[in-house]
Write a structure and sequence with these properties.
The complex is a heterodimer of chains A (266) and B (318). Chain A is an alpha/beta fold. In chain A, 37% of the residues lie in helices and 26% in strands. Chain A has a six-stranded mixed beta sheet with strand order 6-7-8-3-9-10, with helices on both faces. A four-stranded antiparallel beta sheet of chain A has the order 2-1-4-5, covered by helices on one side. In chain A, β7 (178-182), α8 (190-203) and β8 form a beta-alpha-beta unit. With 318 residues, chain B is an all-alpha fold. Chain B is built from twelve helices and no strands. Classes of the chains: A alpha/beta (266), B mainly alpha (318).
């Protein structure tokens, strides 16, 4: 078997092994072991401060931008630890995209928002190729029909839900393998939220999605796997339970999971 | 208790509740007239302050224009073509500000050339690259202090470093470098402010797309901050245009009857020329000084207008 075959057979897109995250001397997340399956939607849930966003941001080294942050343990991506010395975080982020809590389009045109990623990554595309890529990305984010006549308008002129889909299109343009979503719907109205959730189901065919959400209904209806995090007595977040979403919500093994999803705390 | 009594009790309770709610509402908006009155007082004070500030400025400008041109009270118009085309002279009727105007334009262009890239680069480093440690903090504190140092101190520094050590003598380049020293701290402070005002979420968006730090700074942060950077820088340069003290210190001349041949030539600038004319005994020279002030103000206003134009242009460019 070649390395390539192994890679093909590996069902996991990402795998955290014994991962702990520190901010200065404070341990925010401890000993997380979590395997994210390819082409599935994995939801990270838990009460505020349980470290789920920190875990998400560790998956594409966004925590590197926080000066005091430090990650111990391993995060495997294609069998390689993305925290190994010599790994360029820029390259990691190119392949593992991210969508943020608040829509954050650049104050540039819709077209330029989508073209930004390919441009900074030095893709040499002709005008026609770039046009196609922009259209494909916007279609992928279910936004094309709404914006095709105003690609030169400022991205900020769109509605909140459209802005978030623009951010998804922007992430799709650099053709990542994994898309991390940090509470992507928390600033959106229910209809926009529904659109994003439908979009996630579409994207699942070609991408692996990890989503942090505060919304338990969202986790239960829109994800394949659910990971439940909780703050320990030393205020470090830890993974309590992880499994297929149906099992977590209908038949949790851990008592704390059961209490949380039934709304008794959090 | 009979049903009637219970009903009566209920009614009483309801009435009390309504009264108490009404009381609360009254307490909540008590002193409303007095509060509005305080607002009125404040707005009157604010209005008066603006009128005072603008009034003084208006009187200054009208007086200076009147002295320079005699437009309101009659008298000789000194703001003629000769004023722009003649060099300084012992005779007021023949004196002009050609050397000073050209000297000012040369000096300030060079100052911008030196100070703007230096100041913006330093601000970018401090905001986007530097780690937060004792050294950075030391640099930050000292930059803020430098912005408050009296300009004549920079003159002394320029005299020693540029004029003597670097042997640039009393040249335009010495003057421009000295003024650059003066404005760089202000440019750094203003640029840092506007760089810091760029939302972190935009930087994160850029990084998450695989942009490097430099790309994020160049394509996302700077386009957003450039308006504020330009405004701050132009205001700083405006200050430099009006400076006479540091240039007198480095030995810029007051009497220059020729145009500078190159950047290493001796020179004078408008503030020095104005200073020189006001200190002459003849009244005519004071009118010439007024004409010089009008020209200086015109240059300042032009540069400020340029700042506003650039700001609007870059704000719209997305």
């Amino acid at each position: 078997m070649t390395v390539h075959d192994l890679e093909q057979n590996n069902p996991n897109a990402l795998e955290a092994r014994n991962m702990s995250v520190y901010y200065g001397s404070f341990r925010a997340v401890k000993n997380v072991n979590l395997a994210i399956e390819k082409n599935r939607i994995t939801a990270l849930i838990g009460p505020s401060g349980c470290g789920k966003s920190t875990v998400l941001r560790s998956f594409n080294r966004m925590n590197d931008l926080v000066p005091s942050a430090r990650v111990e343990g391993e995060v495997l991506f294609h069998g390689e630890n993305i925290y190994a010395p010599g790994v360029d975080p820029v390259n990691v982020r190119r392949r593992i995209g991210m969508v943020f809590q608040k829509p954050n389009p650049f104050p540039k045109s819709i077209y330029e928002n989508v073209a930004y990623g390919p441009r900074v990554n030095g893709w040499r595309l002709s005008k026609r190729e770039m046009d196609e890529l922009v259209e494909r990305s916007l279609r992928g984010a279910a936004l094309w029909d709404e914006v095709k006549d105003k690609l030169n308008q400022n991205g900020l002129s769109l509605s909140g839900g459209q802005q978030q889909r623009l951010c998804i299109a922007r992430a799709l343009a650099i053709e990542p393998e994994v898309i991390l979503m940090d509470e992507p719907c928390s600033a959106l109205d229910p209809i926009s939220t529904l659109k994003i959730e439908e979009l996630m189901f579409e994207l699942r065919r070609n991408y692996t999605i990890v989503i942090v959400t505060h919304n338990m209904q969202q986790a239960s209806r829109a994800s394949d796997y659910t990971a439940f995090f909780l703050m320990d007595s030393d205020r470090a977040g830890q993974l309590i339970e992880y499994g297929p979403t149906a099992q977590i919500f209908q038949n949790p093994k851990d008592e704390r999971t059961e209490q949380y999803i039934s709304g008794r705390f959090g | 208790m009979s049903t009637q009594e219970r009903l009566r009790d209920d009614a009483k309770e309801a009435a009390e509740l309504i009264t108490s709610i009404a009381d609360t509402v009254d307490r909540g908006s008590g002193n409303l007239k007095w509060r509005h009155f305080k607002g009125t007082i404040l707005s009157v004070i604010g209005w008066a302050s603006i009128i005072f500030g603008l009034g003084v400025l208006a009187i200054l400008i009208i007086d200076v224009i009147n002295r320079a041109t005699g437009i309101f009270t009659g008298g000789q118009n000194w703001l003629t073509w000769d004023f722009f085309n003649n060099f300084d002279s012992r005779f007021a009727q023949r004196a002009g500000a050609k050397a000073a105007i050209v000297g000012t334009l040369y000096t300030i262009s060079l100052t911008i050339l030196f100070a703007f890239p230096l100041g913006v680069a330093a601000a970018i480093y401090l905001e986007e690259y530097a780690n937060d440690n004792w050294f950075t903090r030391l640099v930050e504190i000292n930059i803020s202090n430098l912005a408050a140092v009296p300009s004549i101190i920079y003159g002394l520094l320029g005299l020693q470093v540029f004029a003597r050590w670097l042997m640039l003598d009393r040249s335009i380049i010495t003057g421009a470098l000295t003024l650059a020293l003066l404005v760089v701290p202000i440019i750094i402070v203003a640029s840092r402010e506007s760089i810091r005002a760029v939302p972190l979420s935009l930087r994160q968006a850029s990084y998450a797309l695989g942009a490097t730090r430099w790309q994020t700074t160049w394509y996302v942060v700077l386009p957003q901050a450039i308006g504020g950077i330009l405004t701050g820088s132009i205001l700083a340069v405006s200050r430099a245009i009006g400076e006479a003290a540091p240039l007198i210190t480095i030995g810029a001349l007051t009497f220059v009857p020729f145009l500078p041949r190159n950047l290493f030539d001796i020179f004078t600038v408008l503030p020095i020329q104005i200073f020189n004319w006001t200190s002459r005994p003849q009244d005519d020279f004071r009118a010439l000084a007024a004409a010089g002030i009008v020209v200086l103000l015109a240059i300042l206003l032009t540069i400020n207008a340029l700042a506003i134009y650039l700001r609007i242009r870059y704000q719209k460019r997305y």
